[in-house]
Specification:
The complex is a heterodimer of chains A (353) and B (331). With 353 residues, chain A is mainly alpha-helical. Chain A has a single domain, classed as Orthogonal Bundle (ABC transporter involved in vitamin B12 uptake, BtuC). Chain A contains 15 helices and no strands. The longest helix of chain A is centred in the first third of the chain and has 36 residues. Chain B is of the alpha/beta class and 331 residues long. Chain B has two domains: 160 residues, Nitrogenase molybdenum iron protein domain (Rossmann fold, 3-Layer(aba) Sandwich); 112 residues, 3-Layer(aba) Sandwich (Rossmann fold). Chain B has a four-stranded parallel β-sheet. In chain B, helix 6 packs antiparallel against helix 7. The chains are: A mainly alpha (353), B alpha/beta (331).
């Protein structure tokens, strides 16, 4: 095809490490500032000392109370870290879905992950099953299983003879999501238990964060993230017509499958420990595209860093705005995320993908 | 955007739950007045010239043979509801009213209630007609009730339009001693005045007994009352008031209605007692290891769910709480 004009995204000669390093530095700064603010006032200097004292080989003279150390080290910092991990995961998955589906509205929950995880969690919280096992341990597992089940059904339905048509996949996702959401509501209505734990979980939040959860989330998310980082570079080529991508030596079906698998696994891992938090996976990638362009080699890491920062700030808002009580973080992300998204639309951003 | 829709739905549901859960927060001022006012309005119409007569001195008890009709009750809208005979068929969308009616021996009048009523065991056979947020009006009409009771205003007009007598009274948001007057109210509505008086007096006596037993307690222990996922009652709630009554310092004294308390605040305010449905939630978490209640093994789960229903059973839960807080004073 000699006259086919291929618009290949501009590829920089060298990888823009300065952006990534700048992003990491900003994230650490945001994380530190967020750790110094909370329902209980701990002077900034004391916070710094408590953290430094935790570094191996450093013993500072103790000038703070045990409570402060507990609050900072066991509650606040794990919470900031978990928010960062989940935010990064959702944003990274969002960017991946948008790339694979070539659809600006794709988000990490598109193909049933959220509804499936919600169903899993609800089964655990509202049925006799929850009485048999420790909810703290098994709730994330139930949510994870539910999410994977939903994705599996969606994927199996959409995968017809050898191909994976995007439209079919999205439509199947919508149908599976509706079915799972209906099952969730049904279980909630039939059970005579308090609905509040389920609703809190569905709205998402980090009130239960601790170091163990941070570690477990990383274990769930890391392999999936590796998959996305490895295959994410191919997304640049996949933005072309699929035929062109094939011509350029990309096995599109297999790459699509691996990317969807990675993004779904990562999302399922993140929501299992944090509940359903909307909009981060939609907003962060678009904000990054707006600022730094659509090269997926940088888009994915930068989206992850932005997602982490956004969710840290959203959670900070959730836990301080009505202190000493808390808002579900999902309310905060929806409250600020939706208007921001409308603003992007209003500015007439053409979603260059 | 299914997520957005889902979130919106959840927020709506959550908001409506919160409204019921903390009906004291927005209306706390009016509620108390209304409750007392409503209760004192229950006087037979023939001595209606003195409607402000306090409840206890209304002379119905002595001349219970005289026709007390019509019975006039002030509802939470400020309207007077008149009953021209004792209602034989009552649909009560309220756990507290159901429990009160059974406690005064009038449970057989209940022909329908809401889905979440589980107490007393006799309620198992009573038809469940939806929740307080979705009711089946056709079914209500078909059951031909003499009286339908609601604790929230949502469906009052809809049912009234069908010509059925509706009594709407908000559930108690504070001052748990008003339970006694609610019991008397239902005694008057059903004619079981003496039995209701007994039950109400027993309730009041048990309250008095606790009060006199802890009379010399001065410094209250700090308590955190978790109702699940760190949602906790503030001072202006029924439970918050029970804690104050028991001379316990609610560490969530500065919150409004029922809200989710930050775990940081729990560590910082260091409660001596924790009441929770999920003991592991506290015992297993490293962050709480130095909280006094955990160090001294004073994390308890109430065996009764009585604190969630303003019924005669409420006092049992208050007594249980008293035993946990003062193990040496109460056997």
């Amino acid at each position: 095809m000699p006259n086919a004009k291929l618009e290949i995204p501009p590829v920089k000669a060298s990888y823009p490490w300065n952006r990534v390093i700048g992003g990491i530095a900003s994230l650490i700064l945001i994380g530190f500032l967020a750790s110094s603010i909370g329902s209980v006032d701990i002077p900034l200097l004391q916070s710094v000392k408590i953290v430094i004292n935790k570094l191996p080989g450093i013993e500072l003279p103790t000038s703070w109370s045990n409570e402060w150390e507990t609050i900072l080290w066991q509650l606040r910092i794990p919470r900031v870290v978990l928010a960062a991990i989940v935010g990064a995961t959702l944003a990274m998955s969002g960017a991946t879905y948008q790339g694979v589906f070539r659809n600006p509205l794709a988000d990490p929950y598109l193909i049933g992950v959220a509804a499936g995880a919600g169903l899993g969690a609800t089964v655990m919280l509202a049925t006799p099953l929850g009485n048999l096992m420790s909810i703290t341990t098994f709730l994330p597992i139930a949510a994870f299983v539910g999410a994977l089940l939903a994705v599996f059904i969606t994927y199996s339905v959409a995968k017809n003879t050898g191909g994976l048509p995007i439209t079919t996949l999205i439509l199947a996702g919508v149908a599976v999501s509706s079915l799972m959401a209906a099952a969730t509501t049904l279980i909630m209505m039939l059970g005579d238990d308090d609905l509040r734990p389920i609703l809190s979980w569905l709205l998402g939040g980090f009130i239960e964060a601790n170091w163990t959860k941070c570690a477990l989330t990383v274990i769930y998310v890391l392999p999936a993230a590796a998959l996305i980082v490895i295959y994410g570079r191919v997304l640049n080529v996949m933005q072309l017509e699929e035929g062109h991508a094939n011509q350029m030596g990309v096995n599109t079906e297999r790459t699509k499958f691996l990317l969807i698998l990675g993004a779904s696994l990562a999302t399922a891992g993140a929501v299992s420990f944090s509940g359903l938090i909307g909009f981060v996976g939609l907003i962060a990638p678009h904000a990054v595209r707006l600022i730094w362009g659509t090269d997926y080699r940088t888009l994915i890491p930068m989206a992850a860093l932005s997602g982490a920062g956004i969710l840290i700030i959203a959670d900070l808002t959730a836990r301080t705005i009505i202190s000493p009580t808390e808002l579900p973080v999902g309310v905060v992300t929806a409250f600020f995320g939706a208007p921001f998204f409308l603003y992007l639309l209003r500015r007439g951003i053409r979603f260059g993908l | 955007m299914t997520v957005a829709k889902g979130l919106a739905l959840m927020i709506t549901i959550l908001a409506s739950l919160t409204v019921v859960g903390c009906n004291s927060s927005d209306t706390k001022k009016g509620l108390l007045d209304e409750a007392t006012e409503g209760a004192s309005q229950i006087s037979p119409n023939n001595n209606n010239e003195s409607p402000s007569l306090p409840l206890l001195t209304t002379p119905t008890r002595s001349n219970s043979l005289a026709t007390p009709f019509p019975i006039t009750i002030r509802d939470s809208r400020g309207l007077d509801i008149q009953l021209h005979e004792f209602p034989e068929r009552i649909i009560a969308y309220d756990s507290a009213v159901v429990e009160i009616l059974f406690a005064i021996g009038e449970g057989q009048r209940i022909i329908g209630t809401h889905d979440f009523v589980t107490h007393p065991p006799e309620t198992e056979d009573i038809p469940k007609l939806g929740s307080a947020f979705s009711i089946n009006i056709e079914q209500i009409v078909a059951l031909k009730p003499d009286l339908v009771f609601f604790f929230s205003e949502g469906f009052v007009d809809d049912v009234e339009k069908t010509g059925i007598t509706v009594l709407y009274r908000k559930s108690l948001g504070s001052n748990f001693r008003e339970v006694a007057n609610d019991i008397r109210l239902w005694g008057r509505i059903t004619g079981a005045i003496e039995r209701a008086e007994q039950v109400a007096a027993e309730f009041e006596n048990r309250v008095e007994l606790i009060q006199s037993t802890i009379d010399n307690v001065n410094i209250g222990q700090k308590i955190f009352h978790d109702t699940g996922d760190l949602w906790t009652p503030g001072a202006n709630t029924l439970v918050g008031e029970v804690l104050t009554f028991l001379k316990l310092q609610n560490i969530a004294h500065d919150i409004d209605g029922y809200q989710q308390l930050s775990p940081e605040v729990i560590v910082d305010r260091n409660p001596e007692i924790i009441i929770t449905p999920n003991r592991d939630r506290f015992v297993d978490q490293d962050a709480f290891a130095n909280v006094n209640a955990i160090k001294n093994n004073r994390v308890y789960t109430l065996t009764s769910d009585g604190l969630s229903v303003a019924s005669p059973r409420f006092i049992e839960a208050v007594e249980e709480l008293a035993r946990l807080a003062y193990p040496e004073t109460f056997r």
